[in-house]
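Notebook p. 47: complex prediction with 6-O-phosphono-beta-D-glucopyranose.
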Amino acid sequence: NTSGFIFDLDGVIVDTAKYHYLAWKKLANELGFEFTHEQNELFKGVSRKKCLEILLDIGGINATQEQFDVWMVEKNEDYLRYIEEMDASEILPDVPKVLQFLKEHNVPVALGSASKNARPILEKVGLLHYFDSIVDGNNVTKAKPDPEVFLLAAEKLNVLPKNCIVFEDAVAGIQAANIANMVSIGIGDENVLSEADFNFNDFTEINLGFIQELAKLNGE
Ligand code: BG6
Ligand code: MG
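Predicted complex, structure tokens below:
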């Protein structure tokens, strides 16, 4: 009856939202319209395909399937150029501290991300070895707020959903965790992530006693 910890990637472990934003903005500009930071909020936790659908909607653009696929590839290639330059300095503050603590206490840890680029990013920043299991955009068919990604992560960790703790920066991600009957922890603006069971601005606000409590609380 052990507990499991599940981490979202973008916006929780690394601040890649800015690179997603720059790549989408470039495409929008090429297509002749603006793409703002506010609009980018809607893209958090959302699959690449769904993001492009929203973007084209914003620009009032009708695309053929062929054009759509070309733009999907173009956006990702631009995004990958940013990712290429990433290193450990882009890990969000105190994330390694928490991962290290969980590893030392043999708590199962999984990634639960919508991104198809999750594995190479974790490799680049040197955090891959902390994860017992990776569930990402390559493994799931239903996007957050559907709980599929987290339920699959729980299954892979061999931990009951109710004993899982999820860290998320996206509204859709918190909803997915709640639907999965997991403990949801919002990382970011508590007014935006108001549906979360607990809220923190970032990991510097989370002390290890709390992590231990969560692990124990569900494990005993
Ligand atoms: C999520 C991000 O983690 O991954 C979204 O929050 C992104 O903004 C999605 O669209 C898909 O990512 P990728 O790397 O597969 O394009
Ligand atoms: Mg995220």
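Notes: The pocket of 6-O-phosphono-beta-D-glucopyranose (ligand 1) is lined by residues 9-10, 20, 43-48, 51, 76, 113-117, 137, 170 (CB under 6 Å). The chain is about 45% helix and 10% strand.
Next step: compare against the earlier run before touching the bench.
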